[in-house]
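hey so i finally got around to running the thing on that chain from the lab meeting. sorry it took forever, my laptop kept dying and i had to restart like 3 times. anyway pasting the input first so we r on the same page abt which one it is
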Amino acid sequence: MGYMGLLLLILTNLAFPFAASAVLLGFLFSTRRGLLKHLGQEMTERLGLERQNDIPQNAIWLHCASVGEVMSMKETIARFKSLYNKDIIVTTSTQAGKETAQKNPDITKSFLVPLDFYPSIRRFIRLANPNRLFIVEREIWPNMLEAAHHANLPTALLNGRISSRSATAYTLIKPLFKRVLSHLQFATLQTDEDAARYQRLGIAKDRIFVCGNVKYDTLNDAPAQTAFVDNLFTQLGWNGRQILVLGSTHPLEETMLFRAAPDLIKKQIKIVFAPRHLERIAEIRAILRQRGLHHAFVSDDNFDKNTDILCVDRMGLLQSFYARATLTFVGGSVAARGAHNLLEPAILSKTVLFGKYFYNTPKTAQALLESGGGILVDEHNFKTTVLRLLEDPTQLDNMNSKARKTALSFKGATDKIIDVVNNYERKKS
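ok and heres what got predicted. didnt touch it at all, straight out
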């Protein structure tokens, strides 16, 4: 199987230049070509063509996908800084992730990760000469793992996860993944299900540790912008009103909201919603005007006291709006996106409404449902559920307490990961 895995790795590298050229040409002729504003600069990093003095030497290297992974690893990175007393470098798959990493004072420098083409990733490793490589969540790139192995670079998977669908797909090329996953020194994983899937793909059982999800250690129960939100509500005349806050919404969920809005507004309920993708704001403006709803946007200069619906069109404010909510809904759950972070409002003692599509966060969803801190809704019962809960403050307060208790139960993964890392380092020394 080792030779079959090597053969598959060689074939992917032979096919890579052709596939990459086709993707680039397709992008150049697509409507999204405007995103290629810094192609020359980015390709230097994507091909691993940095100069050696551009990269801190003998650093601890973490590879993250994008903004979410960089943010979730903040405490782990701080602990690594203390543990290893070395520079920290981070590679990401997106420009936004790179920029987020560079804002972290514990990170010396961040880069766009080289494409998973053996010559490019091997050159980056030779230039950086890192001390350790930690791959975050599901960024399993075969050439990265193979090149690290040949460079004698100890590599581990942190906060790892893998969906049932991905695990099934990987079994089609299991010899390749068995080969590269065997190079991992250890893997700290989020759930028992993740552990079983990775073990079937080739990670030895004695190298697997289930530690939970570090994302929940970053849950913020003291949002920084609550004073801004309070001032905004004062300008709107919303003080003392019941406020429904919907976070990370998708079009289907906004349609659900707008249909329910007239009846909610009749009950003096005020509504805040934060679209998941802010590039849709022009579209949302047109829909709100068409429906005749009294609305405003956070970026507006003046606010009408008749406003019933507020759209959050600025990043970084959602948690502060959750903190001032009477009731919350988390998007990507009625829309089939797997659900966004259900515990963000729960940690703030807010009952969480969400839909049946929570396959990205099944553990937290089930825990909220079982504790009574969360309720399933859909397009048909959303309005009636909101009205029922807001008409019974005593019940809602009880559910709010259960939501926070559930959120707190998911903390502690960072400490467990650091214990695994420390044990590994003691065995190496």
